[in-house]
Every structure is written in C-alpha cells, then in structure tokens.
Please model this.
Amino acid sequence: MLKRFIETENICWGNKRESIISPAHWHSYFEIEFLTDGSAIQSVNGINYTIDKGTITLLSPDDFHSLSSKDNTPLKLSVCCIKEDELTSDLIKLLKLYPPPYIIKLSDEAIERFKNIYELFLQSYNSGDIPSAKLSALLIISSCIYELKNNNTVQNAEPLNSNSKVKNVQHIIAYIKENYNKNLTRDFLAEEFHFSQNHLSKIFKDVTGISLFRHIINVRMEQSILLLKTTNLSIGEIINTVGYNSPSLFYRHFFQRFGITPNKIKRYSKK
Model:
C-alpha cells in the first residue's frame, strides 16, 4: 500500500520540497516538523526519540536530525523552515532563553491550533504571499515556545556539540550526498577521510544515531524514489544510478524500507 510512505506536505519556507525518506542531515536554518499522523523515530543529534501523531519538533540550525516511520506506519508530516536572519529580535531573545532542539507532544487543542497555523502558512506560500508566509512561520516558532513553557510533555533533545567529531561527520554526510552512486564501502570512506574503519563507524553513530551503512542505504533509497517518480528511467537504470551492483539487494532494501516494490511505485507515478 502507498500509505506506507511518509506523505510530506510541501510547506517548507524558502525551499519547497517533497521527500519520502529523511536521512540524517542538517540545515543552516530553523526547522519545525509537525507530525500529523502516524508514529515515527525522530533522531536528533545522535539520540532517538519515539514520537506519535500530534508531536512537534523545533530544530536549531546545524542540528543533525532524521525521521523514519515506525513499523511501516503511514506518516503525514508538515514542515516549516525559516532562516535565522528572518526572525524578529524578540523571537531571537526567546530562543536564547529557551534554546532548541525540543520535542513537544501537543494537546488536542494545540494540535488543532497548529494545524490552522500551518494551513495559513501553506496557503500564503503557495499563493506567493511571502510576507504572510513569513508571519505564519514566526507564529509557528512563537507557538512552540509557548508550548514549551506551558506543556508538561516536552522532551529537551540534546543540543549539538560543535566539535571536530561533528564537523568530520558533516563532511562525511556531504560527501555521501554527492557520491551516493559510487561504491561507498566503509573501507573506501575510511581511507578517503583518513580514519580507521572502526573509528569512522563510531563517530558516525555517535553523532547521527544511525550506522554509516544505514545512512548510505537511506540516501540511495531517497534518490531512487525521486527518480521513480520524476524520470522515465527504467528500474534497472535507476538501480545503477543510485549505486547498486546487485538488483536483488536493491529490491530487498527497497521493500524493507517502504513495504512496496519499485515496480508498483513506477506504475502509480504514471497515473
């Protein structure tokens, strides 16, 4: 069933996007993720949190984060992003008093309130009314801080430590993103970044919360979904393009990730 996918609404401020998988990554802006349906594993700076419908996560610039469906349950995710220089001075002061990242389980009343704000944001963004979209984005962050102060079900996620280990992992992730179609073995990456294989695996898991091998698979799966939906490439061509030498391994990883075959996705995308 296609419901096994993460259904992501295109409401990302400054970067309208659609994604199926969200492997470990970071941004130079604030991101607010609002899970409106399903259960997921939210990884923030190397620590995993189980979240459910009605959870909102506020992430700072440079926070490592990823999101994956729990037990292949369908997810609906609303995302809003805004650059730090777009924030008001008062909001910047509040964020210094209550620094993210944090994960908030919302009350039923708060869920409806956030849904309404996100809907305003979406309508403004899609209609090209950027000033109104910006105001809605600021209201979303302000509402997160309000919930932080008044909500008893808040998880303060661990902040990112800006050290050499983190910077090294950022370089590794950027390299994988640009070279996912290559034969990215642990041995190859260890030699590329001048680490022992064990040390490479350890620092990657410490910072991101997932294994290096799993991250490479996630990136390749994300690219394969994009190619299936947006190109006329055959599945065989896509397998080669995303860096797989074994079709059977690709099919196994794809089904493990999504619970559906790429052939069905290809047929669905043509409708």
Confidence is low (pLDDT under 50) at residues 1-20. The first strand starts at residue 6 and ends at 8. The radius of gyration is 19 Å. The longest helix spans residues 130-150.
